[in-house]
Amino acid sequence: MTEQAELAALRDKCTRFVSGHGRPTAASMLATIPPGTVLDTYGEGGVVADLEAEISRILAKPAAVFLPSGVMAQQAVLRVHADARQRRTVVFHPMCHLEQHEEQAYQRLHGLIGRPAGGRDRLITLADLTAIAEPPAVLLLELPQRDLGGQQPAWDDLAGQVSWARERGAAAHLDGARLWESAAGYGRSPAEVSALFDTVYVSFYKGIGALAGCCVAGPEDVIAEVREWRRRMGGTLYGLWPAAASALSCLAKRLPSFPGYLEHARAIAAALASVPSVTVIPDPPQAPMMHLLLTADRGAYARAARQLATSSGIWTSPEPMATADPNVQRLELSVGDATLAFTPDEIAGIFAGLTGS
């Protein structure tokens, strides 16, 4: 058995999960699809149309389209914006998903040019944008910035960055894979955050814990073109209903919970302040997620996490992200239903034990 298979088997035996909504199973995911779901045909009608209408309502946009993946969704909408402006440059953070995780598909498939702005370890600022002379097609902003522990700019700073794009004739597009978390962090509705942007992408398998899939929302003409690109890119499957039905039910179940997730995240961060071997980024959390910098040898931490899973059935992820310092590990903690089952002091105690504090 491979190491990954051993870890998966160990995780399957656990009964409590520190991060997110816990371990999904086939049964639990199928249960998110109501038995009376009305099927679509090639993305038309049925529950797909219902989900698109609901996203239009939640985000207060004229139209929305469901796509099977965020990679496809964002490439399509960026292509539409670029073609409309006869420009190719997309400005984004250096740790943008398009740049880091998509094999430069935006360039190789759509002829777009990426223009990273700002530093890898901090948020984009208006000064970073004003230093750019070439006319952009799109400004893409991710809220919150996952690779920075869920940081996001102050509301006025965000509005200024969007204004910069508009003043240069560029579209403003939101990578809202975690928009539900972002809105909670701003203390605003998803519609208020969405209103700043021309188009918005939202994911359904992340924060709300549904099956894979996403929507892009925006003006009717832009969304109509994205719908055509969905077909060109192979995303108009014969039946999209399972993922759409799961998204619709999970939205209803979990969207009201995000302010509570944020409150719990901040209480966890406050409790972790008493653990000298743990640093919370950002502190306090700006969304219902955070990164933990753990002062611990990677091997020792992995062994302790496995032991905890074996002895107590608590899963904390024995494979943290490495940092430049071999004695400091980085772990992402997303707050969801499973996290709520732990008190903040319990979580502080868990990480104190894992790091030998």
Describe this structure in words.
The protein has helices spanning 3-13, 26-30, 46-59, 70-85, 97-100, 105-108, 126-130, 155-167, 179-186, 190-194, 220-232, 241-254, 258-272, 298-312, 337-340, 344-354, and strands at 16-17, 63-67, 89-92, 113-116, 138-142, 171-176, 199-203, 214-218, 278-281, 289-295, 314-315, 321-322, 328-334. With 357 residues, it is an alpha/beta fold. The protein has 2 domains: 3-24 and 257-354, Alpha-Beta Complex (Aspartate Aminotransferase, domain 1), CATH 3.90.1150; 26-252, Aspartate Aminotransferase, domain 2 (3-Layer(aba) Sandwich), CATH 3.40.640.10. α4 (70-85) crosses α11.
Strand order of the largest sheet: 2-8-7-6-5-3-4
The helical percent reads 40-55%
Query: How many beta strands in the DSSP annotation?
Result: 13
Using the coordinates shown, work out and report the CATH topology of the largest domain. Answer: Aspartate Aminotransferase, domain 2
* Poorly predicted segments: none
The CATH homologous superfamily of the largest domain corresponds to Type I PLP-dependent aspartate aminotransferase-like (Major domain)
Assign an overall shape: globular
Taken in chain order, the helices and strands follow as HEHHEHEHHEHEHEHHEEHHHEEHEEEHH
User: How many structural domains in the coordinates?
Assistant: 2
Fold topology:
Blueprint: H1 3-13, E1 16-17, H2 26-30, H3 46-59, E2 63-67, H4 70-85, E3 89-92, H5 97-100, H6 105-108, E4 113-116, H7 126-130, E5 138-142, H8 155-167, E6 171-176, H9 179-186, H10 190-194, E7 199-203, E8 214-218, H11 220-232, H12 241-254, H13 258-272, E9 278-281, E10 289-295, H14 298-312, E11 314-315, E12 321-322, E13 328-334, H15 337-340, H16 344-354
Parallel strand pairs: 1-11, 3-4, 3-5, 5-6, 6-7
Antiparallel strand pairs: 2-8, 7-8, 9-10, 10-13, 12-13
Helix pairs in contact: 3-12, 4-11, 13-16
